[in-house]
Design brief:
The complex is a heterodimer of chains A (about 400) and B (about 400). Chain A is built from twelve helices and 16 strands. Chain B has two domains: about 270 residues, ABC transporter involved in vitamin B12 uptake, BtuC, CATH 1.10.3470; about 100 residues. The longest helix of chain B has about 30 residues. The chains are: A alpha/beta (about 400), B mainly alpha (about 400).
């Protein structure tokens, strides 16, 4: 095809181009790292371990954008006479537990003092040992699996509610609706199985009959499960996985003639559930709980929502405010410890009480978020209904 | 266990199986011709669906569109998808495989995996990571009730369309000049080339046909599930590939049979209770007994040389099969046995073991008739079925055709 000479020229050209790009980007980096003239402001690196691609890209987008806003708002805090600006190092694990340790190692190598993340519980379980070994605190705004704070990891904190609370709330809600036969289905992931177990327990305890089914994350066809569910004839179908599979499942159930109330946990609280279901009308009227707190009554929410809209042109995505406050927690901890050392941040996080978008927050001895004066029972779990293509808060 | 439930599971198993088959055919055709596993095929399938769906979105079909116009748009979308996807298949072969054709097979395999990753990321770049929605206006929503089970018109459409396509493919391979060239290339590429067959053209044609089938599969899946995501093809590709191996890779009817077995295994395995599944083992046992008592001895006897074929000798062979636990074992451990009896004895012992296992499973399942496998075992069961079949037929259910090859 091409002559030998042409190929050599091409190869040479490509090499030159490559070297030139590397050189240029190297120069560019040098410039940004030059210290400020005044010398009083330093930059501190905070890692963001989230999922920007993959099935939960919309959750990751909300987290990353909220953190960019938070970094801008919170930059310029003072520790020990030095003013710090926050530099976010954002990395993507695609929501896959297998990728999470790699991303964690990259962030550790980058020299971040704290990490906001991960997005999912499965990834958190995979990444935690690496952050633990490096002594870096990890604050997740959305990893809700109960076991994360039950394994004795000192460096894990979260600004969202645990699934055992959410699961119980979901089960109780189903019973409140008068359900006698309930299908509980998970996707075999860490998060979904844990949540489904809690739901099943709650429904069992309330005297409901439960049919447990399992799907598979990434699967498109649920025909076997649909046939089983159809034969069971449930009043309520609760899917504890994520919105993509939930949309497909609910659509297939509707088409099979199953007339039940569809419900789910925070994993389905994405407006994209309508797209997964091939159209919003297929999931109209579905209900879900959430692992965050009710946005109504949050002291800083209106202001945050306005900034989020300005920055992205979109409504606030799931767990955005939880991620914002996760960064707030880190900054508050640094201020109260008077140090930017990772170990000091960890010990300060257990002590600190700070005002975030969601209210006055603190962490308990396990690292779970506790709202002072609010308890942390199922009554805190907010409820949503899917109407007209979006999740609407049900007061 | 109602008839309605069983029937519903069967129809959905067949529907899924037919979709697997449309993809598996592409895998198996390419393997037959090139002995290459085209891992990018799953992505070709997704892209086919994406193109069709985005064409329909671009045209802008809605519920008010008259039916005839809807059908025309539908045909147009399918045509656009077919042409573009077939072109993609052609380009994949031309760019990713042909330059490596005379290298070791593992290199082509790596190139295939690379192509698959490339195409998946290309989809994310072009369409974004969110799923693409099929305009619901074009999806037939009707259903019929058979035995009380709700069967969607679309399910029937998928099954019928797939059957027609398979018939068409069989005709192309068996009845046309190009098909003859494909078969020749598949048997021996060099010899075919020496006979004046344009093997490059033939191989390109194989990719084009395989990709076109995948495009139709992608279109049907987009309609059936309402949406497609950039990574949908990965799992489908994997399953279709498994189905192709199960049916005997390189064999076209095998790909269809393997796909249907896989589709049914996925649905029956976790949908039926053990009491119903036990009947499958009863069927297997009857088949096994037929093999052991009728077919295998007849096959052996046919292979006895004329001069040795006496009624007494035939009887000995038959007895080896019939009374395997005693006679066959005795024959195996006897000091002097002739080769035919020895081989027959080995075979008889194996068949007996299989039949005893089938009997045991049937009894076990009948005893626990009310139990049902939890749906988390779905893929475990599919895998067990796969292993069980491949253990007794390593070349796949209809895999003999491979052995014909020189």
């Amino acid at each position: 095809m091409w002559s030998e000479r042409a190929r050599k020229f091409l190869a040479l050209g490509l090499t030159v181009a490559l070297v030139a790009t590397l050189g240029l980007s190297g120069c560019a980096r040098d410039e940004t790292e030059e210290p400020d003239d005044t010398g009083a402001t330093e930059t501190i690196k905070i890692g963001v371990h989230t999922s920007l691609t993959g099935g939960l890209a919309d959750y990751g987008f909300a987290a990353a954008e909220a953190l960019k806003i938070a970094a801008e708002d919170l930059s310029g805090f003072e520790v020990d006479g030095v003013t710090y600006d926050i530099e976010l190092v954002i990395k993507d694990d695609k929501g896959e537990p297998a990728e999470a340790p790699i991303v964690a190692q990259q962030l550790v190598d980058e020299g971040v003092v704290a990490v906001i993340g991960t997005l999912t519980s499965g990834a958190a379980n995979a990444a935690l040992p690496i952050y633990q070994a490096a002594g870096i605190p990890m604050i997740s705004g959305s990893a809700t699996a109960p076991d994360l704070t039950e394994q004795g990891f000192e460096n894990f904190f979260r600004t969202c509610l645990r699934d055992d609370i959410q699961g119980a709330a979901l089960g109780e809600w189903a019973l409140e609706l008068g359900a006698e036969k309930v299908v509980v289905m998970d996707d075999r992931g860490d998060y979904a199985v844990a949540l489904a177990n809690e739901v099943e327990e709650a429904v069992d305890a309330g005297g409901g009959e439960v049919l447990r089914q399992e799907g598979q994350e990434g699967e498109v066809d649920f025909s076997a499960q649909v046939s089983n569910i159809s034969a069971f004839g449930p009043d309520v179908v609760i899917f504890t996985g994520y919105h993509r599979e939930a949309g497909l499942l609910f659509k297939q159930l509707t088409e099979a003639g199953v007339e039940a109330q569809f419900m789910g946990g925070d994993g389905i609280k994405s407006d994209l559930i309508g797209e997964g279901a091939g159209g919003a009308e297929n999931v109209e009227g579905a209900l879900c709980t959430f692992g965050g707190f009710a946005q109504e009554g949050m002291p800083g929410f209106e202001e945050f929502a306005a900034k989020f809209r300005d920055a992205t042109g979109e409504e606030v995505g799931p767990y955005a405010e939880n991620n914002y406050d996760a960064l707030g927690a880190v900054v508050a901890a640094m201020e109260s410890a008077g140090s930017t050392d990772s170990a000091d941040i960890i010990s300060a996080l257990f002590e600190v009480e700070f005002d975030g978008v969601m209210g006055t927050l603190a962490f308990d001895e396990k690292g779970d978020v506790s709202v002072p004066g609010g308890g942390s029972g199922t009554e805190l779990v907010p409820r949503f209904e899917y109407t007209g293509g979006t999740w609407v808060y049900m007061p | 266990m109602t008839l309605e439930h069983i029937f519903g599971l069967t129809v959905s198993g067949l529907t899924v199986g037919m979709i697997y088959a449309l993809i598996a055919l592409g895998y198996t055709m390419v393997y037959g011709v090139l002995q290459l596993i085209n891992f990018a095929h799953g992505e070709v399938f997704t892209i086919g669906g994406y193109i069709a769906a985005s064409t329909l979105i671009w045209i802008g079909v809605d519920a008010t569109t008259p039916l005839a116009v809807k059908f025309a748009y539908f045909g147009l979308a399918l045509l656009v998808s077919l042409v573009l996807t077939a072109t993609l298949g052609f380009l994949i072969e031309r760019i990713a495989y042909r330059p490596l054709r005379n290298r070791s097979r593992i290199i082509a395999l790596l190139s295939a995996i690379g192509t698959s990753i490339f195409l998946q990321n290309l989809l994310v770049i072009v369409f974004g990571p969110q799923p693409i929605i099929m305009p619901t206006a074009v999806v037939p929503t009707g259903f019929v009730e058979i035995f009380g089970a709700r069967i969607r018109v679309l399910q029937i459409t998928i099954i019928v369309v797939s059957l027609l396509l398979m018939a068409l493919l069989t005709w192309i391979v068996k009845g046309t000049r190009m098909g003859k060239a494909m078969r020749a290339t598949s048997q021996d590429r060099e010899a075919a080339e020496m006979m004046g067959i344009e093997t490059n053209l033939t191989i390109s044609f194989t990719f084009v046909v395989g990709s076109a089938l995948a495009a139709i599969g992608g279109f049907l899946v987009a309609m059936y599930y309402g949406s497609l995501q950039f990574n949908t093809g990965f799992l489908y590709g994997l399953k279709a590939f498994t189905a192709a191996v199960l049916g005997g890779i390189g064999n076209i009817p095998g790909a269809v049979v393997g796909s249907l077995v896989l589709g049914l295994a996925e649905n029956w395995g976790v949908g039926l209770n053990l009491g119903v599944l036990a009947w499958l083992f009863v069927g297997g046992l009857l088949l096994g007994l037929y093999f052991q008592l009728v077919r295998a001895p007849r096959f052996r006897i046919d292979h006895i040389a004329e001069e040795f074929r006496t009624p007494a000798y035939e009887r000995r062979v038959r007895d080896v099969y019939r009374f395997a636990p005693v006679v066959a074992l005795k024959t195996l451990f006897a000091e002097r046995t002739d080769a035919l009896l020895y081989v027959s004895a080995q075979h008889a012992v194996r068949l007996t073991a299989a039949n005893v296992i089938l009997l045991g499973l049937a009894v076990l399942f009948f005893v626990n008739g009310d139990v049902q496998f939890a749906s988390k075992w779905q893929h475990v069961i599919s895998f067990a079925v796969l292993m069980a079949i491949l253990m007794f037929r390593p070349s796949g259910i209809l895999g003999e055709h491979i052995q014909e090859k020189v």
